[in-house]
Design a protein that fits this description.
The protein is α/β, with parallel strands linked by helices. It is 23% helix and 40% strand. It has one domain: Restriction endonuclease-like alpha-beta roll domain (Restriction endonuclease-like alpha-beta roll fold, Roll). The protein contains 4 helices and 11 strands; from the N terminus they run ββαβββαβαβαββββ. α1 crosses α4.
């Protein structure tokens, strides 16, 4: 018998001072049995960083041809393809052929740095690719506070996210490994 996914709800209050975006979002996410709390948190951080009411949280772990997050234009084109973790170079190249902009968010510290050094050359020609790493210590701190219903208040300023969970505030300062050309 296969293990079932666990459902998590994230209630987010987002104040993005950089983009003048202020909204509340409720995300219902299924955490696949093979997914860690850290990856779950990285998916939520990816959503928060570029929050938009049109974002789709897909079932990428079950559907290999789907991104973790997807922003589609009204005509169905994929404007943003967002993957979390360490996808292989072929997946990223295919995504660049399907989307106007591809963003990858690694989150596992030195393991992610090794991954990036291994795929960087294969992806050098992609002009629409961004690789922006979430700091491992911040992801671990937020993962430790995850419950089945998690409330975050997030303020974004100068690219930095201040995530308040209960009485604790965790600063997430993403590191740009590669910006768009």
């Amino acid at each position: 018998m296969a293990l079932k996914s666990t459902v998590f709800k994230f209630q987010l209050q987002i104040a993005d001072l950089d983009r003048h975006y202020y909204a509340d979002h409720v995300l219902t996410l299924a955490r696949h049995p093979s997914e860690t709390d850290q990856r779950l948190v990285a998916r939520v951080l990816a959503f928060v960083r570029l929050a938009d009411a049109r974002f789709d949280l897909t079932s990428a772990l079950c559907e290999p041809d789907e991104p973790d997050l997807c922003l589609r234009a009204l005509d169905g084109r994929i404007e943003r393809w967002i993957d979390v973790g360490q996808p292989d170079a072929r997946r990223i190249i295919r995504a660049a052929g399907r989307a106007e902009r591809v963003i990858v968010h690694p989150f596992a510290g030195s393991t992610s740095a090794l991954w990036w050094s291994g795929v960087q050359r294969d992806l050098a020609r992609l002009r629409t690719l961004e690789v922006i790493a979430f700091p491992e210590d911040a992801v671990k701190a937020l993962a430790a506070a995850v419950t089945r219903t998690t409330h975050w208040q997030v303020t974004l300023q100068d690219g930095v996210m201040m995530v308040t969970v209960g009485e604790r505030c965790v600063t997430v300062a993403p590191d740009t490994w590669r910006g768009m050309d």
